Amino acid sequence: MRLRKKTVGNVKQNTSCEEKLEVKFIDCYKGSGVFAVGSIAKGKLLTHYEGELISKEEGNRRHESYSNRDGSFLFFFKYKKKNFCIDATHSSGIGRMVNDNHKKPNSKVVVEEVDGHPILSIYSIRLIHTGEEICFDYQDPSVPWRKVCIDKVDT
Ligand SMILES: C[S@@+](CC[C@H](N)C(=O)[O-])C[C@H]1O[C@@H](n2cnc3c(N)ncnc32)[C@H](O)[C@@H]1O
Questions:
Q1: What is the pLDDT of residue 10?
Q2: Distance CA 88, CA 97 (A)
Q3: What local confidence, expressed as pLDDT, does residue 155 receive?
Q4: Domains of the chain
Q5: Quick check: pTM over 0.80?
Q6: Mutation probe of ligand 1 site: the residue of 87, 99, 146 with most atoms within 8 A of C-beta
Q7: Ligand 1 center–CA 138 separation, angstroms
Q8: Which residue CA neighbors atom 4 of ligand 1 most closely?
Q9: Across residues 47-53, what is the average pLDDT?
């Protein structure tokens, strides 16, 4: 996952809507995902992408050393013109379970600052209905499942 667009903001002490989120198994290919158990208005803080804050270089090193499954919890982003990564491999946060959707995302990740450190917050970008899967755009065209979708359309 990457964050290429400039989405840096200051934390406004928002309380998150985590009580309206649940993790559910989807299928063997996609694994689990995060779903809304109540309707959520546009612009709400859903949760954070919690994990260990590391440099981009350390993120790349871990990417090489992790198995495919573990490596999928590395989130690369820019903060104050420097490149960072949050490694959520060992996090218990729900944010790490949000899946990719580049066509119709209903949330987005914003880099915010707390005590001089960057954090990743996930906000709803439209009204989210009960039962909907929470998803944001990973901004990584190379992810394999997007190719699977294109192949399905083409054939
Ligand atoms: C940050 S994890 C999200 C949680 C994951 N689904 C799980 O059960 O652990 C990212 C991984 O989820 C899967 N994933 C995310 N979005 C997907 C999508 N749109 N289609 C298929 N798999 C997806 C991929 O395996 C990806 O490496």
A1: 56
A2: 10
A3: 43
A4: 8-154 (2.170.270.10)
A5: yes
A6: 99
A7: 10
A8: 97
A9: 96
